[in-house]
From TrEMBL:
Any GO BP: protein processing
Name of protein: Gamma-secretase subunit APH-1
UniProt GO cellular component terms: gamma-secretase complex
Organism: Sinocyclocheilus anshuiensis
Subunit note: Component of the gamma-secretase complex.
Family stated for the protein in its record: Belongs to the APH-1 family.
Amino acid sequence: MTLAVFFGCAFIAFGPSFSLFVFTVAKDPLRVIILIAGAFFWLLSLLLSSLVWFIAVKASNSQDLGLQRGLLMFGVFFSVLLQEVFRFVYYRLLRKANEGLAAISDDDGSAISVRQMAYVAGLGFGIMSGAFSMINVLSDSLGPGTVGIFGDSQYYFITAGELLQSLMGHEAAR
């Protein structure tokens, strides 16, 4: 049963994003590169925010609960802010790359429109953030039945998959 829950949850969470990738991104190599670069920029923002969090926690007093709560709020705010800054930096980089591609292109038009770039980059951000969000839930679904023993909802995995599906769709739409 755990294998069925694992695949069901994974397909619910990643099915729509995978179908968007297959039908709108996979046929164009430039879109695939933009998607992978978007995922990479999300990873860079996660790495930098994790580094700042690590330094802040190590430099603070671990016994002061008020300070730890403040650091948690700071970490969440900083992580979201940094992710949006990296999204903007990536957008600016894509605009410059698109201008360069248009300059060397034989056609008069652009290689890819700004809306297509934003969609594909957002899909890359969403897939990578979804993979990081869902990996622990999926590993719990394969475990020896730890989730749900002490009165947790029996719909935990399907709810987590549907929530992640909507969040990845939101990332692609922004």
